Each structure stands twice: as C-alpha cells, then as structure tokens.
Structures
1.
Amino acid sequence: MSSSTLQQWLTIHSWASLASTLVLIVLFASGLPLIFKGELESLLGYGTEASSTATGDSSTSLDELLVSAQANFPGKAVHYIVWEEDTPDLVILNIGDTPTSHFSENVNVVMNQYSGELVESAPSPLQFFIDLHTTLTMGPFGYTLMGFVALLMLVALISGVVVYAPHMRRLEFGEVRSTSSRLRWLDLHNLIGMVTLGWALVVGGTGMINSWGEYILMSWRSGQLAETVADYQTIPPPSVEEFASLNTVVAAAQLALPDGELYYIASPGAFMSTAHHYSVFMRGNTARTKFLLHPVLVDARTAEVTAAPALPAYINALLLCQPLHFGNYGGMPLKILWAVFDILTIVLLGSGVYLWLDRRRPSRKDRGINNVQSI
Amino acid sequence: MYSRSNLKHIYAIPLVLLIMSVAGLSLALLGDKLWDKASWILLSLTCFALFLRPIRRLFHK
C-alpha cells in the first residue's frame, strides 16, 4: 500500500469517525441501561404489581382483554397484543389513535392476562433511553438517521483496521507506550479497537439493519404478504363490529401451526397485517428457533386460516439481528460482557476524539526544541 | 510497503480475536446451557486480550 493510499484511508477513518462520534457516544451510553432493561424496570417497580395481583391457570379470554383495553382507551385501536417470554402473566398491548397509525406514535400498555386488569399505562421508566437510542427522540426520521450513523461506524471500523498496520509495524500486540500521553492513548485506541472489533461490527451491522427494518418489512408487505392476500383486493375490509372472536382466531392459528408458540397478534390494519386479516405470529419453541417467526393469516371476518407462509430468508435475517443487537439471548453473563464491550467502545470513541484534537499540538519534546531555536 | 510476514505479524492476534468474538456472539444463539457457556468463555477471552501484554511482561520478569 502506498503512502498516499494510506493517507486516504486515514482521512476516511478520521472523517467517518468524527461525523458519527457524538451520536455514537449517545447511542452507546443510552444503550448501556437498555442491556439490563428488564432488571432495571423490575427494580424500579415497573410492571411488578402485575405478577402479584393475579396469577393462575385460567386466563381471561382474549376477547374480554380487548373489551377491557377498549374501556380503558375509548376510541383507540389495539394494533398488537404481545406475549413476552420472561413475563408469562402479562400481555403488552400496543395501542394507536387509529387502526393504521404509525407504530412510532403508538403507546404500549401492560395488562394482566389472568385478571384482565390494566397494570401499567405509563411508559417504561427507561422510555427516554429507548427513544434516545432508537431515534435520538426525533421520531420516524430518527430511525433512518441511526441507520446512516451505524453505516458510518462500520466504515470507521473497517478503515480503522487498515490504518492499524502502520502503527503496529514495530510494536507487539497490546503494547502501550508511555513516552507521551498521545502515544499512550494512540496505543490504547488501537488495542481497544482490535479487542472490540468483532462485537462492534456485529452491533453496528445489526443496528444498521434494525434501523432500516421498517423498509425491509415494507418490502415484505408489498411482496409476499400482498401476493398471499391478492384475492382479497376486491373485497371491502371488515369493520370492527364484523371482527370474529379473537379466541377463535388464535385457536385457528394454533391448529394451523401446533408446534409454534404464540408470540404476538397484529390486528387488521396494523403494519404487520392486512386490512382483512389478523396476523398471528408464532415463534419456535426451541432455543434455536425462538427468534424465528411464522405468521398465520386468519380472516378477520370468518376466523378461517387464509395462509401460513414461511417468512423469506431476509426477514429471518432481520429477526436474528434483534437479539444480536440487544444481547438478551445468553443470560446475565452475556449481558455483563455486553456492558463491558459497550463501555470499552465508549472509551474507544473518546480516545479517538482526544487523538484528533491532539493531532496538531506539538509534543513537549518538539516544543523544547522550538524554544531553544528561538533563543 | 508491508511484506506478507509483516502483515501476518500485525493482524494475527486481531484476526483470532475477531473470530473468537463473532463465534462467541453466534454460539449463544444456537442453544442454551452449553452453548451459552461457550459463548461467555469466548467473549471473556476476547476481553482478556486487553491484558495480554501486561501479563506476558509479568512472566518475562
């Protein structure tokens, strides 16, 4: 590699890093509490009343749950009903102003599925961090912006690997020189960069894909989903009064996919469904398949299964990007390691800023020579 | 500018770390228990590389 090529890589590394550093520091700092979201929420008392108020074998029927939700939020539309693995007593209802409102404008409420009581209608105590981390509190535009920031991060990482070589020509891996503060931080920057490289590439790559997930899902909606329900194009969509019982809808979906585990239901009109169907998303019941989903499209009028198409590979890849970004798939030790890598990446970003600010400041030795020359 | 042996010398450990961390991140996705533990070990070893040089120096003293 010629020195001019190397200089070009250095320029790419500097500017890709500088353009994204401030946002990345905010993202990694706000991501830190989100690694322990479940633990922090229960520590702060969010949703814990739910588990204690009522538990048991017989759950309230889903239809009663919907009636209860509509009584608490009159005039609003339930978009999604979600069952989380770690809180089996609870269901999360995603509610919007209209049946087709954008999901970023919707609110989540937590209900006890045994008693049908509303447990939490307030947002999570970590909602600020969630908004900051996903959209920088900028709404839907924030998702797109985050994707570009993640792309810049990947460019900075790859160019960082290229410019690592000239620094390490005469050094052993991990050597940190202490002759000057700049050299010490340069060596630490290189060392931390190489240690966190794999994690940062995975988290940055999956973050970029997650940020642009809406576009990927839009392509699924206009492709596979539209083709599957093409016959419904000429039929007017059902009104809420015409909707079949949700219990019957779920029973039909479970009959169609008996090995699946109920994960969430998308109501007619919601982003993950059609105007004519409930989409019942089932997940696998093994460690290997629990992140992969299989939708069952159930006619909202008749509760008959229209289709249960396997999702295309690109949607499965998107689904796998979520655990790989959040680090919530390998127990507490993985979360702790995730936090360590996160903190190391913040140090990496901070040291990069320091090195850039310090780039033209003459070293103490040079200053000494200049002083002697001026005398 | 760089010979192949030079590049090998520079990138050998970073490449091993990259493989270890990507494998560590992937293994926990494949299953629970043993897979999780393998993932924790590989990722911990990757972090441990931060202290490779000071430890090596300690033994050389």
Note: Chain B has a mean pLDDT of 88.
2.
Amino acid sequence: MSRWCAALPILVMAGLPIWAAPSLLVAPIEGLAAILCAIGIARCALGPVTVGASFAVIGYALALWSTGAEVNAVAAGIFGLALLFLFDLSEFARRFRGARIIGAVMWEQIAYYLGRAAIASGAIAALIACGSVLGRIIDSETGAAAAGLGAVIAFAAAMRAGIVRAGPEDG
Amino acid sequence: MTGRVTPLAYGLATVIAWALFLGVMTGRAELFIAAVPLVVGFLSARGADRAPRFALRHKVSAERLAEGGRLTVTVNLSAIDPLPLIEILEFLPAPLDLSAGNNRVVLSAAAGSETTWNYEVLCPTRGRFSLGTFHLRLWDRSGLVVAESREVQPKPVFVYPYVVSVRRVPRPLYTQASFGNYVAPRLGDGIEPGDIRLFAPGDRIRRVNWRASLRRGELYVTRFQEERNADVVLLLDAFADSGAHPFSTLDYCVRAGAALAAAYLGRKDRVGFVELSGFLRWVKPATGRRQNEILAEALLPASAHSTYVVPKIDYLPPRVLPPRALVIALSPLLDRRFINAVVELAARGCDLIVLAVSPIEPTRRVLGRAPVYDLTLRVWALEWRVEIDALRRRGLVVAEWQPDTPLEAALAVLARIRPRSAAGR
C-alpha cells in the first residue's frame, strides 16, 4: 500500500474545517496540520502525523466555535473517518515499508479498514440518535455534564481497549 | 512472545483526547462525533489470549560456496492457528547481501495453510556465516498491538576464497623423501637422466646406455634422478589490513594463499599454513585433497587484529615449519613485526619467498579519486618500493603483486630467477 494513499485523508482533514469556516485563522492551522502530516508520511514517522492530526482537530474546533452554525453530523463523521484513515494508512505504509507483502494481505487489510469504517458510521448514527433522545429529556446544563462524563468514559474505555489488552503474554 | 502496544495507540489516544477535550470546551457535538471513528479504531484492538502456533522451516541451497556466489534461501511457514498479520525478517549477517527477493515478508495465513517464499543472497567475501535467525512480529489488524519473538534455526554457510588456477609456481630449493614432481639430486628410480656409470651385475639391460657403451667399448648404464615432493608453508600476515572487504590486502593475501595451496597440493607437495598476528594459528603440512579442504577452512576466518603482542617464530613446532620447507610469506609489508619475522627466517637459511601484495590499489579503492589522495598514494608507493628494495638487499626473494594483475604474472618472475631443478641441494 503506497504511503501516498494517505494524501486523500489529509486533503479531507485539512479541507473540511476550511470549508466549514473559510477564515484566516483556520486556514493557516489546517495548512500547518497538512504539512506536518505530509512530512510524517514522507519521512515515515508517526510523531509528525500525530501532531498534524492534533492541529487539525484544534483548527476544526476553532472553525466550529467561530461560525456557530448548525450541527453538521455528516461532515464531523467524515472528518473523524479521515483522521482514522490517515493514521491507518500512514502507519501501515510505515510499518511494512521495504517488506515483501505475500498473498492477499493488502485486500484483507482494506476490507478490514472499510468494515471498521462501516462500524464507526453505525456508531455515529447511534450516537446521534441517542443524543437527540437525551436532548429532549434533559436540560442544557445536565446535557453538558453528561457530555463531559461521556467523553471521560469513552476515553477511558478506548484506553482500556487499546492499551490494557496488550496481546499475548511473555513466553 | 512479548506483547506490547504500538506507538499508533498513543497517537490515536492523543487525538481522541484533543477531540473530547475541545468538544467539552466549545460545547460542539461535532467534535464528539469526530472522535467516534477514532474510539472505534481504538476498541478494535484485539490482543490474542495465547500465542498462535506455527512452524517455520528454513533451507539454504548451498552450505559451501565460493566468494561472489549466490545462494537461495527458502522459508516455509506452516500455520497451525490463524495468523492475521505476521511479519518475518531473517537477519543477514554482514557482509552478506540480498541480491533478489526480500528477507522481510508480511503475510496472513489461515489455520492449516502453508506459505513458502525464497530469496537470493549474495556472498561477496569469504567467511563463516550463520543464517536462520528470524525476528517475528505478529500484528493485530488494527496495528495497535504487536507481539514479538525470535526464532533461531542456525544454518552455517561457508564462503571460501575464490581460487584462481596457477600453472607455474616457484620451485622449492629442497625436496623431501616422498614421491613428487620435482627432480631431486638423489639418484635412483626416475625418468630424468642424471649420470652414467659402468655396468655392474644385477643392472637391468634396459638401463644400458648404448651410445656411451659403443663409444667407450664398455657397457655403461644410465642413472636417473628421483622425483620427489617438497614441503611448502604459507605464512600469512594478519597484523595489518588495508582497504575494504572484499578487496582488502588481507583478502588478496588469502586468495593468493588458497591458489598457491591448491597448486602445490596438485603437485603432490605437503602444504602447511601459519597465520602470524597477535596469536599464532597453524595447520601442519600434509598432502592430498583433504588437506586442501583443511587449508581452505583455516583461511576462512583470517582477519587483522589490533595487537601489541610480538609473536615469535620460535614458538612454532618443527612439524609446522619443517627445516627444509619452502616458506611463502603473503603480506602487504605494512607491519614491522611481520617484516622482522621474515628477515629472521631468511637469516636462519630458510628457503623463503615474500609475495608482497601492494596496498596501494586496495586503499585507493576506499579513498576514491582526489588529487591529494593521488599524491599521498604515490608517496606511499615510493616508500613501499623502498621497503621491498631493502628486503632484496638483505637477500630475500620478493615478488610484488599488484592485485589488479593476475597472480601468475607476479609468480612468473620468481620462476625465472629460481633454479629449474633442485639439483645439488
């Protein structure tokens, strides 16, 4: 898988916030994010990609905060998927650079990424549905607290899934 | 297997944390939604409960080959449990190099399946190498978790120095007792006429020299000189080395040694080997095809060691350095200790030839072309020539060998100045 496949997620990641709020504040941040990600891919380094993705999220937050427009769940979902694909593609290319890939590894991996994107899309739909139901039941102050609590729980769950379950034991 | 979380997990966690934090701070739901695919990606990490079972088999096409040869390595993976994504790297010891294919592969295997791949390895220089050290990485499909292990299936590979065919070698001054190819001063059975004498009872009629008998009016018989072999000891200078493998002076010395050993053994001579460096290493003189193998094995690990030790020739047992042996010193003449050793041998009356391998071209190959290097090497070449002249003034027989010319051309000079036969010795 060519590492330049990650150029498309970079374009989406940097372009979406600029499309949401074409301001002089957001564009340089997203430009910097795109450059950092491109450097990370060119040099096969995860660090610049992580920093670039973080800048992209900051720029997106700034764009949303400055416009104050209606919630665009589809754009947010695409932005999140672009970030995930950016990490996946750049990391896959980095890990196996120079190695000979035998058999159907590539197609199986693409199928896995697409399957996971489908699950993520379903999760976004479920989150939006739950959010709209909860929005009608609870008031705005309680909603903010619930959002914060949900964020902490989501982060803790993700950390547990990714870090605590660390694979086969020694030996 | 040792499991660990990859840097990707930390990268994802960082971006998730930013998205959730900014979502709470700005109160925008989009940031929570944007974090969902990343959280799903995180949750998809799947570490195996136990290490999957598989068998790795490894085969090399040749265990013994000459310098510059290529060998094919075939690796077979039999998966007992399913392997979602496995990365296998076979370590190639320096200076072995990949010439075709890839020693690092990534594959996925279903339970019970077998996968075979191969690649070609170039062996540019002599040495003993061990293949079959595998580094394995079992990746989770998400790339967030990896388990690593190492598997060693040692497969020794011997790369022998390239042996050029040498037809004319320097003749030894002294012969030994066994049958060989040199005309010895001793009279007996042979094919080379040596002398005539009066016929005596018991002489065979076919030995009668009719021409001399008719001229002198008495029966004369022809006496023949015996054909005998010689002892040859190759003295390798491993004190110093100049240039880079596989074109260093020591490499050239080893190649010359292997070629001379093969040539003398082909003449039924007994050939031995001594490596002179910080320590002494030797092979006793013997003859035959087996000795050729033993000498080739002994030449393989020859390498220069930095040492302040001055080994003495006296330490060598007489069986290793027989008194009437032809000693061929293979050296770039860079280390004073080796030069002193050969001067000492010559002073003892040893039949000695120094094959001086020029260090200029091997060093130029490393330095490249630049005016300052050219000047330096020219000065060095002059100093080297002065060293050789000094040895010649002491009575040593020195043959210069420029490694870019055939070895036989350097030895041809010796064939002219040394006597054709060992008669009278």
Note: DSSP finds six helices and one strand in chain A.
